[in-house]
Amino acid sequence: MTGLGASSSPWRNPKIVLMLLSVFACGAVTGVVAMRVSQRTVSAKQMPYYKEGGREISLQRFKKELDLTNEQAAEIEVILDDFMMYYQTLQAQIDEVRSNGKDRIQAILNDRQRAKFNKMLNELQTTKKLH
């Protein structure tokens, strides 16, 4: 019998496992960047009141269109403040994860690859600004 024994299994080679994990991590970071770009575009279109003046415009619009009582308006104001704080905290965490992933990828690239990677990221940001 000439089959491979358990001792020669490629899965036991740490270099192969590390390479596969690195490829997976790079794919995950690229996916996060792509999702981020697409979600920002969708979010800006779905929630224009955040771009146009934030909480005040939202609250005024809710008061007017929903005919809110003063008590309802006060409760919604607290909810909007909580939501914005939560959103800003998540945004900061996302930015930190993105930066960490970018730094980790750049650490394994050579100078030529790093330059090309940075060019790719710049192209993504340019595309994002156009939308």
Topology:
Layout: H1 14-46, H2 48-51, H3 55-66, H4 70-108, H5 111-130
Helix pairs in contact: 1-4, 3-4
Description:
The chain is mainly α. 82% of the residues lie in helices and 0% in strands. The protein contains 5 helices and no strands. It has helices at residues 14-46, 48-51, 55-66, 70-108, 111-130.
Give the number of domains: 1
Total beta-strand segments: 0
- How is the biggest beta sheet arranged? none
* Secondary structure: helix percent: over 70%
The whole-angstrom Rg is: 23 Å
Count of helices?
Answer: 5
**Global morphology:** elongated
Question: Unreliable stretches, pLDDT < 50, 5 or more residues?
Answer: 1-6, 41-52
Task: Give the DSSP E fraction (strand runs of 2 or more residues).
Answer: under 5%
Quaternary form: single chain
User: What is the CA–CA distance across the termini?
Assistant: 61 Å
Question: Can you give the mean pLDDT?
Answer: 76
- H/E element sequence: HHHHH
Structural class by secondary-structure content:
mainly alpha
Task: Identify the notable features of this structure and list them briefly.
single chain, 131 residues, mainly alpha, elongated
Task: Sum this structure up briefly.
This protein has 131 residues and is mostly helical. The chain has five helices and no strands.
